[in-house]
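# step 3/5: fold
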Amino acid sequence: MFLSGIKYQLEHDTNTYTYRFHNAESRFRNVVIHFDGQDPEHLKSALLYALTGRVISPITAVLLFLVDSNGDQWQLERRGDRSRFSKNRQAMESDGEQQFREALLDGPDSESVLFDIYKISYQEGGLTAQRDGKESQVARVFHERGQKKLDDLIGACAGFLTSSHKVSLPNLVSFARKSRSLLTEWSESSRHLNLLMEKYGALQEIDSTVVETLEQELNLLRRLEKDAEFLNDPSRSFDVMKQKLRRTHKQLSSICEKNQILQLPTLDQEIDWGKVISSLARLQAYEKLEQGYRNSFSHVENMVKPLFQEHIRSMRGFLSEDKRLLGEIEQSLQSLTNHCQTIQQEQQSKNQDKSMLKKLFGERENAHAIPSPRPDILDSSRSAVDQVLRALGSMCSNLEVMTTSYTEGLDSIQERYEKVVKERGKAKDEWLVIAKRYQFDPAMNLKSMLNLISNLGQISSLYSQKKDFKIELTSYRNKLKKLEKIVLDWRALTGSQKSGDLDQVSILISEVRSLVQYKGKKEDQLIKARKLITKVDFFQSLRRNYETSIKQCESQWRKNFSLLDLPYTEIGAKNWNRFFSMVDQCEAFAEILDDDTQTLQNEEVFSLRALSSPLNIFALEPMAKEGQLEFIRQIETLSPHCNLLIILYDRDLAEMLIKLGVGYSKAIRSKNIPTNEESSEKNKSSHDPVMSEKARAALELFKGRNGALSHE
């Protein structure tokens, strides 16, 4: 509740006193102060008169403006014993005061008061508060009345549960809090379960497996339709692809046969043709070289070697015979030499004798005397023999050199042959690796390789086509196998009695196309079945939920009785809502009594429970600085939670609170408050105003918002 403004008149005084309340926007938005240099008590009396209707001297008339927690604007006018209430500029009927109380108390709470007044003072022990007026007496009366009513309600609640047990209010409240929601849940669950069984009970007899069967059948048909899409293209039929494959294979075989290509390499990978040709050419070169060495060696072994050996053997025979003959000649020459030497010696001896005889006897030489041998002839013969012997020795040496050279030549040829064989083996291994890598024919020759390279473009094109056709044909066969499996699964699932041979492509395709036509029909059946099964599942789920909820509520209901040691009463046996209403009344009255008890204790005046009235008025007497600071601290704590009107008698404290941001009242000039009759006459005689009454009231209430404490 926020006070907007107030007007009042005093006895024997023609002036009207008007105050506008400026509510702060800070943390003190619920607090306003009032300081009047003349008599602040007049405002308190005017508020008492406006809120209670009791005339308090010297106030004779009052007009109060305020806003409730819902934002509605109220206007209270009292003069003597007459009152007038307006809400949002609309005049209230005879129950205006009751509606006003309900609006401020947030309901028809007749056991509470609209406001309470406290006198605050400061002593050495701190702040003290004393109630002012008769409001505390009213609260005490309310407390006594409520206590009696509470006892009666507790007794009625206990009698509802049992006739022999006394039950305390805490136990009643605990039982009600635990059982209220159970009763609501049990009632709603039971009601919904009955409605459900009444409307959808027949759904319990529907078999839910029909949807699963239809889904399996439809899944097979969808798979069949998807996998059979390739059958719709006649240009890619099985026979067409086989014919294309045969034609391509025939063209490729013709080119390979024409170019002596026995085996095609793997043409779908990159081939280093330079390396391939180099390796194959090297291999064939070494093979030819090896063959040449082998032929040469064979010729030498088969033709030259026998002739050479025979020649050597003949030469050695001739030389041996020549040596023998020369030996005989040499022996003969030696014999002749020896004979000549003997003859020569004899001749010399005879010559000596003849010489002596000649000398002695003077005889002439005999012309027929035997000639003496000639040594020079023998020496010539011996020299000739020696020459022949030397020639024979040279011939023997040459023969040995020739034999050695022949042997070394054969060894050299053998060594070179072995080296060629080794290199040919390396070249062979290298070629076999390349042939294996690229899938060449290991026996392929260089001519075939060159033919392959020269026709590589055409061969590659045909090879790729053949490979693609093979892949497509294999894929086609695999798809047919998948279709065959799906058809067999369909027969097993549906219990079909068909037994056609699916190995024949035409029969398989015919049955596939026939089954695909069922898909639309099966989809319609599945949609209908799903809708029905959805209802069944939803029905079963709801039924289980309701039954489970009912069982849980009944179990917890029994447990609540056992916790209070009360005789068990079934949850549907009585009107428990009436019992819960009685317990609510007991709890409400107990809270009121508790609040009233707290508010009767002055020492708790600064507690929120004590300040539960819509408006709390503090009349603050002048006090020391310590008391002022303590009061400000209390106000900072209370300001966000309750509405406070502080009537001050100390200007310094008032200015201090205004500086802190506390709202304040401001006196303004105004006309006298009209009587009820005057107001009615004025309303009857007035013409349509330029400014509406609501706008004029707002302007009047909030005019002069800025300013400090003053009285004009």
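# step 4/5: annotate
Residues 136-200+536-611 form one domain.
# step 5/5: archive (pending)
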